[in-house]
Design a protein that fits this description.
alpha+beta; YefM-like fold
């Protein structure tokens, strides 16, 4: 983490932004008092679209049937 004064930050903003782009963090201080922080922006996740897999997958009635005892035991961590 780098700590710089406001004057330095105004003069060297491009250099400080390059440091932040590389994953660093810069604290801007007025004198010796920290007042702000430059950090990388967290990437935004795309919104989920309801029904985006429509027509690409199918679930038949067998999906809802109980598992055989042997397979159920494997899921529960027991021996078959």
């Amino acid at each position: 983490m780098t700590v710089v004064t406001i004057h330095y930050a105004k003069t060297h903003l491009s250099r400080l932004l390059a440091e932040v782009e590389a994953g660093g963090e810069v604290v801007i201080a007025r004198g010796k008092t920290p007042i702000g922080r430059l950090v990388p922006v967290a990437p935004t996740r795309p919104k989920r679209v309801f029904g985006s897999m429509q027509g690409q997958i199918a679930v038949d009635e067998a999906f809802f049937e109980p598992l055989p005892d042997e397979e159920l035991a494997l899921w529960e961590g027991g021996d078959a």
